[in-house]
Amino acid sequence: MAVTLLDLNRPALWPVDLRAYLDAHYDLFVGWERGDVAAPAYDKAIYGLIDVLQPYAITGWHCARLTDAEIDHILRDGMQLPNIAMLDSRIDALAASGELAPDIAARLKAKNQGGDTNRAGMVWFCFFHPRLAGESGIERFFRHWGGEALYNSHECDPITSPAISVVGTPCVVEADIPIASLGKHGGLSFKIVRRYLKHRGFRTREPVDHEDRIRMPLPAETIRRIVRFPEAEFCSLTGCEEWRKPLRTASGGPA
What we know:
This protein is α+β, with helices and mostly antiparallel strands. The chain is 41% helix and 15% strand. The protein is built from eleven helices and six strands. It has helices spanning 16-24, 26-34, 39-53, 68-77, 84-97, 102-110, 134-143, 148-151, 160-164, 187-199, 232-238; strands at 4-5, 56-66, 123-126, 169-178, 211-214, 223-228. The strands form two sheets. It has a four-stranded mixed sheet. A two-stranded antiparallel ribbon has the order 3-5. The radius of gyration is 20 Å and the shape is elongated.
């Protein structure tokens, strides 16, 4: 997949067509921040920016607890969009390998959010180093296997929680995400405009860091690497060494 990578932190190096579009709309974007521009004009400019951004990609990080087989699958085949069938298949695989007891697997399959419309068909990424979200923002992703659609229903369960807390390894998946895979909404465009305005010297307290969900599978060639706990780079990306509650290895002990 040949896409140009957009470094969100370096506006001076953004592609010429993107900078030209932002320069041409500078007065309008500043006016909107100051409350001097009507919504229809601003919306039109944002829709135009969405189109300009489509050919590019941005680096994102996905936090999860993954098994060795899942890590190998992502590196080989990329990331597919989750659904209830995929979650059931992942649970069955662990039951078949002996990593989950059959009764635990049955409980997990009977109670989860894998088919919920706000979870199925999307994978979330943050487009800033995960450590910026802090312990409260990311630590739950690493405590239990299965993803939020599973652990939301089990992390407080005295029977299933211990079982999925020792499966897999805390990981950060680093990938170059095609902006087109995020869908044509204004979320990223708003942050791009604010980063551009800050680069031009305009002060804003509005957030510039972006998180979003992909709605198309990621090919393997977009995956840069998967960083595992307790590797030094994992600790650097997450800041986990500064957390009040330390992460544990699969055996349940400290790293």
